[in-house]
Amino acid sequence: MAFAAKNDIKPLEKKLYLSSPTMHGEELRYMTEAFETNWMSTVGENINTVERLAAEKVGVRHAVALSCGTAALHLAMKLVGVRQGERVFCSDMTFDATVNPVVYEGGVPVFIDTERDTWNMDPEALEKAFELYPEVKTVVVAHLYGVPGKIDEIRAVCARHGAKIIEDAAESFGATYKGKQTGSFGTVGCISFNGNKIITGSAGGMLLTDSEEEANKVRKWSTQARERAPWYQHEELGYNYRMSNVIAGVVRGQLPHLEEHIAAKRAIYERYAEGFRGLPLTMNPYDTENSVPNFWLSCALMDEDAMCKQVRGETDVCYIKEAGKSCPTEILETLAAYNAEGRPIWKPMHMQPIYRMNGFVTREGSGRARTNAYIAGEGVDVGMDIFSRGLCLPSDNKMTPAEQDTVIELVRRCFA
Ligand SMILES: *Cc1c(COP(=O)(O)O)cnc(C)c1O
Fold it and tell me: Is residue 372 over pLDDT 90?
């Protein structure tokens, strides 16, 4: 570190994480209950209770507890009936678990560029995509970093073209749009209880639906698709995707703390926003009139003219330091040197080697195949631009204000 030698900030004693599990105590009680009653399987009171509580919270009729959010997304693809070779429109700036389940079913993801107001699927690009591929029947929409996307606009476009929405609310559990919970807007919704999410079961996820018939189908598929018969009788392909009653105990203990976690994350977001005043940085934006994010991750976007040169290869990166300028790489390396974990923005799917040959649609129409070469402003799509100039900051809800102030000061010094 160039300035580490002459500076007065000591590395943090306790590592600051991006987002790590926060336990409260009740989790252990419900896990122990499962243990002491021998309900150590995929049946039990914890599962029944978390399904009821999650459905109530989101405002849907049914929640089906599964082994993870990815399993929920996979069974969502089966519910809407994605077929071999069928194109499916997907959020581009998201985690790959949003998209992979399309491929599990033989579908072909086509990525929709991102808008700048919430960093989610751009309804204008989506409209453009339906001009190019009018046959598409399914759209998978994620709410990145816990910020609700432009749900009304996306729903209107999908309604015009007769397409169903699979809503990936894995990162946005507890976030609301016009007073309604994310996860309740799609034909099917999915949430995750992975270890880094706003609340966790250590693992786990849920599929959300208003249809009892669909909920029953998913419950059956997730437990090996057994038919009612005295023996193992199978008419359909089954999966071993059900949530364990032990995991459900952890989720059950966490659920009452969801709003408390959101409040802590919100305070972190706001402290960053305040602390970065005067720097050429903006926080990840949201629709302050219509939505309340869960503030899962706090992110920052650097102004274009405050970026020093930064070049990313497929798996490595370098930058050239310039006075008064910085880049996400410099900030991330600085934070790491002081024992704080940040992360680059999720690399857009259309830039991933595995999906580079898939379709990609921007407001202007069909996007060209991208490389990592980034020339500021030069015909760059929105996702690529945010990936280049943005970063995720330490957002752990156990971080103290003093620790966060150290992060803020370190970021500030990167622009020296
Ligand atoms: C975490 C995540 C998932 C997958 O959830 P798991 O429970 O880890 O399988 C899906 N989509 C997004 C956007 C996620 O962040």
Answer: no
Question: What confidence tens digit (pLDDT) does each residue in 111-162 have?
Answer: 999 999 999 999 999 999 999 999 999 999 999 999 999 999 999 999 999 9
Could you identify the residue written with the tokens 């009729």?
61
Ligand 1, closest atom to CA 142?
13
Q: What is the mean pLDDT of the chain?
A: 95
CA angle 370, 325, 345 (to 5 degrees): 40
Q: How far apart are CA 103 and CA 89, in angstroms?
A: 12
Q: Packing angle between helix 123-132 and helix 151-160, nearest 10 degrees?
A: 20
Ligand 1 atom nearest to 192, measured from its CA: 7
Contacts of 213 (CB under 8 A, 6+ apart): none
Terminal CA-to-CA distance of the chain, rounded, Å? Answer: 14
Indicate which residue's Cα is closest to atom 5 of ligand 1.
69
196 C-alpha to center of ligand 1: Å?
10
- Ligand 1: which of 95, 197, 207 to mutate, most ligand atoms within 8 Å of CB? 95
Give pLDDT tens digits for 329-340: 999 999 999 999
Question: Letter for the amino acid at 391?
Answer: L
Ligand 1, pocket residues at CB < 6 Å: 68-70, 94-95, 97-98, 142, 168, 170-171, 192, 194, 205
Of the residues 99, 140, 143, 168, which should be mutated to test ligand 1's pocket, given the most ligand atoms within 8 Å of the CB? 168
Q: What is the pTM of this model?
A: 0.96
What confidence score (pLDDT) does residue 8 get? 84
Average pLDDT over every residue of 220-242: 97
* Alpha carbon distance 338, 406 (integer Å): 9
281-283 and 390-392: which strand pairing?
unpaired
Minimal-distance CA residue to ligand 1 atom 1:
170
CB 406 within 8 A of CB 276: no
Q: What is the dihedral of CA 59, 64, 70, 75, to 10 degrees?
A: -110
> Distance between alpha carbon 225 and the CA centroid of its chain, in Å?
29
d(CA 1, CA 406) in angstroms, rounded, equals 16
Determine the distance separating the centroid of ligand 1 and the alpha carbon of 240, expressed in angstroms. Answer: 18
* Confidence tier at 367 by pLDDT (50, 70, 90): confident
Task: Answer for the pair 284, 251: CB distance below 8 angstroms, yes or no.
Answer: no
Residue 370's pLDDT band (boundaries 50, 70, 90)?
low
Nearest CA to ligand 1 atom 8: 194
